[in-house]
Structures are given as structure tokens and as C-alpha cells.
Design goal:
This protein is α/β, with parallel strands linked by helices. The protein has one domain. The protein has 9 helices and 7 strands, in the order αααββααβββααβααβ.
Length: 272
């Protein structure tokens, strides 16, 4: 069977080779190369999280595969948010006890707190606004450079921890200026009651150590190195410095960053 025909059959049957048995992500690079609207869970995700732009409902974002080959102008803010929500849906399915602020998954926790995400043109992230009786977090639109970065796992991961940060504000966590950043600090790192920056630190730590394993260690060496450096820098440099008391310990490189590469799904041989 030629390659083009094989890919056509894969598309037609909604086979996702990047998703392993049990519903978790086996290879994040392959996963992000796929369009969200081809995912069997897409309708559920759209139902659970409404997307708006400047307060108005968004239209479907055009997408072609592989997403890495799309023109950057077509790789839209809407598509990026859809990709992030799609990762959240799968990344820790079946896990429990790994997030100190909830007993279940990140997806279920976010769904219990917010009804959608509002993309703000030229703005930044914040919590919260109300549309149609639903609570929305705000995220800022992105320039070409950042949207290009969001084709990668570190880019999408950075968005996910931001969504989680803003969602944590629903539980009533204000920021302070105690670390020298105006309204950009949290008073203490308390694992029994993690603040918004604590939530971001925790997620990046899990991605680094494989506590949440999305198979980034199965990517090409350059991508593995880039992701590992990103997460290590995030926990030690970006988020650790946002606390004024009881700072988390400086982390060292784990023996197997991201976790051990899980067995990749095998494609069945073609029948003629």
C-alpha cells in the first residue's frame, strides 16, 4: 500500500496512533501534528469548554495536517486553544492523587470551575468574566512568533499551565507584590493549598519527571532536549521565584526526563 493511501485510511477511521490504550498520550509530537477536529473527543471538548474571542463566539478554526506544515497565519489562536484543551483531556486520564488541589484529572477540575476561555485581542490573561451565565478565563492573543512556538510541546504546555493558573483564581487566590513583581507573586508555596503559581510549578514538575507522561521522551533528541530544558527552567527559574516564603526546592535533572518512552501503538499490516 502506498503512503498516501495508508494515511487516507488512518484519517478515515479516526485512528490516533499518538494515543495509547487507556486513553493517554503516547507521543506528544505525533499528537500535536493532528487537527483537533479529527479527534473522537472533539465534540465533548467543545461542549465542555466554550471558546469566545473578545466576548463573541468563535467559528471553527480551519486546520490541515500535519499542523507543523500549516502557514503560521492559519495556525490561529482558536486552533491553539483547542489543541491545549485536547492535551488536557488526554494527558492524565485515569490518574488520581497527582494534583494536590483536586482528587481527579486536570480536565475534570477545570470543567468544574470554568465554562470557557475568552481570547482577548492584544490583551493578557486574567480571571474572570461571565458570558451567558458561564465563567470564562481570559487569555491573550499571540503574535506570529509565539503561535509558531505553540506548534511544539513546550509552547502548548506553557499555555496549559497558564489556563490552570487562571482557573485556580476561581477559588479565590489573589496575587501580591512581595517578590518584587507588581501583582506577580504568591505569598507562599504550600502544597496543601497550592496558589496559582504553585499550580504552574506543580504541572511543570510533573511533566519534567514523568508524573504526567505525554511521551515527549519519544520524540527526536532535539525536541526531547528542548522540552527538558524548558521544564527544568520553568520550575527553577520562572515559577520558583514567584514565591516569598517556603520556596520549592531547586530541582535537578531526573534520570529519565519525561518518563520512560511507552510502547508505541503498532499499525496493522494492510490487507489487499
Amino acid at each position: 500500500m502506498n503512503t498516501r493511501l495508508a494515511l487516507t485510511l488512518v484519517a478515515a477511521t479516526f485512528i490516533l496512533p499518538s494515543v495509547a490504550r487507556g486513553g493517554q498520550i503516547a507521543n506528544i509530537g505525533a499528537f500535536l501534528s493532528q487537527c483537533p477536529d479529527r479527534d473522537p473527543a472533539y465534540a465533548q471538548i467543545v461542549h465542555d469548554f466554550e471558546l469566545r474571542r473578545d466576548g463573541l463566539p468563535v467559528s471553527e478554526a480551519p486546520c490541515t495536517e500535519p499542523t507543523g506544515a500549516m502557514a503560521i497565519a492559519q495556525y490561529s489562536d482558536t486552533l491553539i486553544v483547542r489543541q491545549g484543551l485536547r492535551v488536557i483531556y488526554y494527558m492524565d486520564r485515569g490518574q488520581s492523587g497527582h494534583l494536590p488541589w483536586t482528587s481527579g484529572t486536570l480536565y475534570d477540575w477545570m470543567k468544574s470551575k470554568i465554562g470557557g476561555i475568552n481570547i482577548v485581542t492584544g490583551g493578557g490573561s486574567s480571571c474572570c468574566v461571565q458570558f451567558g451565565g458561564k465563567t470564562f478565563i481570559n487569555v491573550g492573543s499571540e503574535n506570529d512568533s509565539n503561535r509558531d512556538f505553540d506548534r511544539t510541546w513546550p509552547g502548548i504546555a506553557g499555555n496549559i499551565d497558564l489556563y490552570a493558573h487562571e482557573t485556580r483564581h476561581v477559588d479565590g487566590f489573589p496575587h501580591t507584590s512581595c517578590c518584587g513583581i507588581t501583582n506577580g507573586c504568591d505569598n507562599t508555596f504550600d502544597t496543601a493549598n497550592l496558589s496559582p503559581y504553585g499550580v504552574q510549578w506543580w504541572l511543570n514538575h510533573l511533566w519534567l519527571t514523568g508524573g504526567i507522561d505525554v511521551g515527549y521522551e519519544c520524540e527526536v533528541p532535539a525536541a526531547v532536549s528542548a522540552a527538558t530544558n524548558w521544564f527544568l527552567s520553568s520550575v527553577n527559574d520562572q515559577f520558583r521565584t514567584r514565591f516569598c516564603a517556603n520556596l520549592p526546592a531547586v530541582q535537578t535533572l531526573p534520570a529519565t526526563p519525561g518518563g520512560a518512552c511507552p510502547p508505541q501503538p503498532r499499525r496493522r499490516s494492510a490487507r489487499h
